[in-house]
Fold each of these.
Amino acid sequence: MDYRSQIGLNFIRPDVNRPGNHDFVHSGAWLVSQYKELGVKWNRVAFSWVLVQPEKDEFDWAPYDRVVEACDREGIEILATLGGHFDRPPVPGWAGESLKDVVDHRRASLERFVEAWVNRYRDSIAYWEILNEPGRFHKGLTVMDYVEKILKPSYRIVKSASPGAKVLPCSYGHLPVVGDREDFWDAARGYYDIHNLHVYQDWGMFRSRPTADQEAEAVQAFRQLMVEHGEGDKGFWVTETGWWGTTSITGSMYEIYKVDPVSRDLEIRPSYTGKETLDHPIVAREDAQRAGWMKDVFPRMLSIPGCEKVFLWVSLDEFEGGYEPDQVYGQTTRQVDLWGIIAGDKTWRKSAHVLREMLGTE
């Protein structure tokens, strides 16, 4: 298999008031250099409306220009996602209180941003994803709001600026929760080129076996759904998949477990220093599990008809304000999220070496 054309990485969250913002702004070009070393040729990058346009007449594309230019130099393709992943607030304050508010009362402001975004990068980017996970993040938005007021206008804007470009909708499993997801199929038909899915299994649980049985079953079921709805001739991308246990041992994980359920004798504290976080035995164990799982999940997913690409979540740990070995991170202090195959101190984890080996560069 030509994994270099099929396996991608999610970059790092640019989101305002989220821990990934610091390294996105300050280490974006460096992280692209790590893609080159890994052999990764596909990069999923979220373009945060809140970060780019903090005021109505003020645009700051600089962090994105650095990333796009670095990808251009290294021959890395970008899947560009509209909006951040989970910005706080979810839309610029000047535009409205929520995305629902924007599309109901000031839709032109969003469309102007989409036009500026696509026209700025149309010579460098050919793949455009319209929102990340509105069902989780954009409360009150309906399925038909998404299709009629966001997906369709964005599709027209992309095709007008770059007729050969390809458009993806948001992940099907993360459509808005208001309304009937079944309505998407007929309403959105003709307004996307490639379908989209996020696949996370055993969410909120440490997993016992590093196999991809559940992921393969979920992807096969989605493929069957596409066929049943007359979209079997389209390809689809899994734009996010990941191993839950690699996330933070603090934060949300602390709320689930106070004692490690695998070893049964290791207490999980609500906060750690940066060095303690990276040296934690749970972090090492879960990364080793993920490394084994990756060897199974990519071939299994990509063998399913129609599945063209799979993007792993995520490239680099997210330490609020950047990684500092003596700084405390956790429940009541700076946030941290440990999904990265590259650790917060910028060293490669075992899973990064496995990815490099699968891409044929080791």
Amino acid sequence: MQSAQERYRQRLIAPVAPPECPPGCDIGPPTFVGVGVQKAGTAWWYHHLISHPGVAGTVRKELHYFEHGWEREFDDQAVAWYHRYFPRPPGIVTGEWTPRYMLDPWTPPRLRTAAPDAKLLVLLRDPVARLQSGLRHHMTLTPDPLHPRFVIEAIERGRYATQLTHLLKHFPRQQILVLQLELCGQEPEREMARTYEFLGLDPHFVPDDLHRPIHPGRGEPISLPDDLERFAFETYRPDIEQLARDWPEIDLELWPTAKKAT
């Protein structure tokens, strides 16, 4: 079995190969795509999502398809190849969830080209808690985890309103469902039902292991230096204010960072 570091290195080299299309299945654009965010419980939520009898997963939860070939034109061949990842029987929805898709500026327009009708899922988390978890994640995966570029990217990943604003330039709001890890943890049945209903599925289905604890993550917890934590708060303050204006369904009372930043 590959280690997490080996899987990470392989993902940087090339995307995983698409599956064979079984008899009786069709290939086409994904029904849904999770686009954000890293270290916000997306693996946990995707696991429950594909446990629904009306959903088929793909070869891997995170395809990272749009990380590759960013320097080339996104042509019809690239679109057709992406569709190959999503064979499904008639009447079944399918999709993937790559948390980086909302971060990279070229991905939303390319995703719009490849899957214009896809429902998009976004799962958010308190931005400083996400930052700490993201840095911890990098420490376990990368050969040079303390390089400053990882810190800069980790901070940028928490600017949710900025990323959502860019996403809205390419997808209508009614195709985007924004969830919160904290609320999903408190009210998993209600938030899972919302997710199923958003995808046109029976919202009354309840996964057997819905209350399974969220994976705590690998590696030692990260404590930010005081100056870096202050910079993160200063960076997130205007973004949180915009998030409150643009996405009032987000409960900022659940985020200690929001209370501290406003």
